[in-house]
């Protein structure tokens, strides 16, 4: 959801020389290395990871955050976590990290996961190596090049007047509700995917859609395309497997919803703000 900003620059090729301490995004077991001491910076900052005993780990350049160079590192042996640090799930850092730092952390997580999963050519099985210029893995035998995978998804807040449709997926904690979401299938447009997902999960039909924003969602490599959708007809019927509960909720009486920093939360808050503004106008 973060628009282009000069303080957040993604890049693949590291500079020949870098001034000042870098910001290190160390990923171990899908979690991010963070500092235990709240009085210190949350993430490791140093010219190199030798200060943390991790100088043997190959870095992947990410770009710059507020003019500071950023690197991702895979910590395959989690017993090597430096003293004073611990590994935290990235989801738990939503709302704790500012939006640009979370975006860079998400980039780090995706780069590390992709690199680990593409060490061999998916066409012929030969060990692959890093591309000379791009963020890619190249096969020396057949020449096939593999780029980081991005999976497009849609997420929609369906509304009818002062009420919004919020659902609880089977994987959600009890009484936690969110917007409907799903992956875009081969050959689909984003708009078609919204209509299909809502129909499959609730048997509701939709009227006009309005694109809201997108968000990189590193769990593990999704790009969320957010929409506002108007209810057109039907009664709620959940499948009981993927979606176990769905209801209409008034904007002044919402259940527990996703945390700040997620596009689901942003969709809901945007709708609530507009409904309350309309009430004040009348």
Order of helices and strands: EEEEEEEHEEEEEEHEEEH
CATH class of the largest domain: Alpha Beta
* CATH fold category name of the largest domain: Nucleoside Triphosphate Pyrophosphohydrolase
The share of residues in extended strands comes to 25-35%
Q: What is the count of structural domains?
A: 2
The residue fraction in helices comes out at 10-25%
Walk me through this protein's architecture.
- The protein has 282 residues and is α+β, with helices and mostly antiparallel strands.
- The chain folds into 2 domains: 110 residues, Alpha-Beta Complex (Nucleoside Triphosphate Pyrophosphohydrolase); 131 residues, Nucleoside Triphosphate Pyrophosphohydrolase (Alpha-Beta Complex), CATH 3.90.79.
- Helices cover 18% and strands 34% of the residues.
- It has 3 helices and 16 strands.
- Strands 1, 2, 3, 4, 5, 6 and 7 form a 7-stranded mixed beta sheet that branches.
Put the structure in a nutshell.
By secondary structure, the chain is an alpha+beta fold. The protein has three helices and 16 strands. It has two domains: 110 residues, Nucleoside Triphosphate Pyrophosphohydrolase (Alpha-Beta Complex); 131 residues, Nucleoside Triphosphate Pyrophosphohydrolase.
């Amino acid at each position: 959801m973060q628009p282009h900003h000069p303080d957040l620059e993604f890049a693949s090729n590291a500079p020949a020389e870098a001034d000042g301490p870098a910001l290190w995004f160390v990923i171990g077991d899908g979690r991010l290395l963070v500092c235990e001491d709240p009085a210190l910076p949350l993430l490791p900052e140093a010219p190199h990871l030798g200060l943390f005993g991790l100088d043997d780990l190959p870095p992947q350049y990410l770009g710059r955050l507020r003019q500071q160079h950023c690197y991702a590192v895979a910590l395959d042996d989690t017993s090597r976590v430096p003293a004073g640090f611990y590994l935290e799930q990235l989801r738990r850092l939503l709302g704790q990290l500012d939006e640009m730092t979370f975006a860079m952390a998400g980039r780090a997580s995706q780069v590390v996961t992709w690199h680990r999963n593409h060490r061999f050519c998916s066409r012929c099985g030969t060990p692959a190596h890093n591309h000379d210029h791009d963020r890619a893995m190249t096969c020396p035998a057949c020449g096939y090049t593999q780029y980081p995978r991005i999976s497009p998804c849609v997420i929609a807040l369906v509304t009818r007047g002062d009420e919004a449709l919020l659902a609880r997926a089977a994987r959600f904690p009890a009484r936690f509700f969110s917007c409907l979401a799903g992956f875009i299938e081969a050959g689909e447009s984003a708009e078609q995917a919204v209509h299909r997902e809502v129909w499959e999960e609730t048997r509701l039909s939709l009227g006009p859609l309005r694109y809201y924003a997108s968000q990189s969602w590193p769990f593990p490599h999704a790009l969320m395309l957010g929409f506002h959708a108007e209810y057109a007809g039907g009664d709620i019927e959940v499948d009981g497997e993927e979606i176990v509960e769905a209801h209409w909720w008034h904007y002044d009486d919402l259940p527990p919803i996703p945390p700040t920093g997620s596009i689901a939360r942003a969709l809901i808050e945007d709708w609530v703000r507009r409904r309350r503004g309309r009430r004040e106008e009348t």
